[in-house]
């Protein structure tokens, strides 16, 4: 049975960078791309970071019974939905690499079975994380500081210690030095790959 290596962590922990590095390092892992109704950001490409769809697209997929889980965030710019679709991405054999939230991890684990799910949780000290978030937001053409702050604060609840324990997130990877962090994650994936 194939495994799903599920990468998650609070905002500005470097998980997007780590995810890209893992895709390059393990090209044989199938990548599951989640869906969102939020606007595409500068530098993003549809089908890479997310599949960007309209509210109507989400409603249609829900009616078809294809939505595994959905999360709605009330942002400064209105509600944004993030969701996982049971589509062709999950078909076939071979291990999978996916990125998302703890909430989405829990729902997918319920849907597909916890024996398939291998969580990879990235951590960064909160002060450093806030500094990284601010640096990233300043680089945007139109910085959205209120949304950055909302995301930062919401992560404390979304990734509370209680919720991490409910999700059986025991193994954690601290991203102080990305090279060392990647080395540890690389070995973790190798040790947990589906044996052929």
What's the CATH class, please? Alpha Beta
CATH topology: Rossmann fold
How do the strands line up in the largest sheet? 2-7-1-8-9
Strand content: 15-25%
- Whole-angstrom Rg: 16 Å
- CATH architectural arrangement: 3-Layer(aba) Sandwich
Query: Into how many domains do the coordinates divide?
Result: 1
Report the sheet with the most strands, covering strand number, pairing sense and barrel closure: 5 strands, parallel
**CATH evolutionary superfamily:** P-loop containing nucleotide triphosphate hydrolases
Low-confidence stretches: none
Alpha-beta classification: alpha/beta
Q: Judging from the principal axes of the Cα atoms, what is the shape?
A: globular
| N-to-C CA distance | 10 Å
Along the chain, the helix and strand elements come as EHEEEHEEEHEHHHEH
Helix content: 40-55%
Number of helices: 7
Mean pLDDT over all positions: 93
Number of strands: 9
3D structure, described in words:
The protein is of the alpha/beta class. The chain has one domain: Rossmann fold (3-Layer(aba) Sandwich), CATH 3.40.50.300. Helix content is 40%, strand content 22%. It is built from seven helices and nine strands; from the N terminus they run E-H-E-E-E-H-E-E-E-H-E-H-H-H-E-H. The longest helix has 15 residues.
């Amino acid at each position: 049975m194939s495994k799903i290596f599920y990468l998650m962590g609070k905002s500005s922990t470097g998980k997007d960078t780590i995810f890209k590095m893992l895709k390059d390092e393990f090209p044989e892992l199938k990548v599951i791309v989640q869906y969102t109704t939020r606007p595409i950001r500068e530098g993003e490409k549809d089908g890479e970071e997310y599949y960007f769809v309209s509210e109507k697209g989400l409603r249609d997929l829900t009616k078809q019974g294809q939505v595994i889980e959905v999360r709605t965030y009330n942002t400064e710019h209105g509600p944004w939905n993030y969701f996982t679709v049971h589509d062709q991405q999950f078909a076939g054999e071979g291990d999978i690499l996916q990125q998302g939230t703890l909430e989405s991890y829990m729902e997918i684990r319920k849907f597909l079975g916890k024996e398939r799910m291998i969580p990879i949780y990235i951590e960064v000290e909160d002060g450093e994380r806030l500094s990284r978030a601010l640096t990233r937001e300043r680089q945007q053409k139109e910085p959205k500081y209120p949304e950055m702050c909302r995301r930062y604060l919401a992560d404390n609840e979304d990734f509370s210690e209680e919720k991490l324990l409910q999700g059986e997130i025991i193994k954690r990877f601290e991203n102080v030095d990305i090279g060392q962090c990647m080395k540890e994650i690389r070995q973790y994936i190798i040790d947990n790959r589906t044996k052929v």
